[in-house]
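Per-record layout

source: Faecalitalea cylindroides
name: Sugar kinase
length: 298
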Amino acid sequence: MKYAIGVDIGGTNTRVALVDENYHIVERFQFPTDNKNPRPTMKKIKEIVDGFEFEIVGCGLSCPGPLDLINGIVLTTPNLEKGWWNFPISKELSELLGFEVQLENDANLAALAEAVLGQGKDKDEVVFMTISTGVGSGYVYHGKIFRGSHGFAHEVANIPYWVNGPSHGTIYPGGIEAISSGTAITLRGKKAGLSVEHAGEVNDLALSGNETAQTIMDQAKEYLANHIAAVYAFLDPEIVILGGSVALKINGFVEDVEQRVKEKVYSVVSPYVNIVKTDLDEDSGLLGAACLGFQIQK
């Protein structure tokens, strides 16, 4: 049996998993990321991988973006300090491990996991979106991640939909992440005077009749539906899979968004709109990274 490695480097912790060709996680490790200097993290990954006594065909690697996916370089990520910036992580880790390592962003890896193992299994065109702290997206076409010409395809968070709309960190005002992410829903609620700590509480107030909360939730769903309707117009996917805390924990959110999308597309397209919740757990990123590792040998 062959094996691949999935690595997920986060701003706080790094996870490493050994995955067999049936996509079972055989072993997994987690350790704190050195967010100042990449080399201690690279060394620890090598120590873990050196302990795996199996034939390893490749490694998929997730790291906070923005990333240069074409050349395997970490760019100016806000989640890691400047010692990581412009670090050629794919090349460095490949040389350390002795086999190829491919860098990918987390949403693309989640999309790949969905296409291989999840709700998109056996489908040719799969779009995944996470609606959580931020809004991220990935697209898998005939089993391969679609990156675009420069590796920035489906970096959707900054797409502006609302003229002079809400601001949210470095996101362009009125960008989809500034409207529909869980963080944005909460922030907009607080700015409007609501006593809330997460998007679920905004939704609870909306259900109880609070008009301000109702407006915030309605706008979050409406603009997300606008975005997904545009995705159907451009890509005609077989399925759109939603993950993240907002999609998974707010009852009826996905179903409401799907109905709105069906009303926005052409009538001949509406029957093909298929928006569902992910059924993969928190390991989807690691499994997606392993899927990418297995694709390296092909």
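summary: The domain at 122-277 is CATH 3.30.420.40 (Nucleotidyltransferase; domain 5). The first helix runs from residue 38 to 50.
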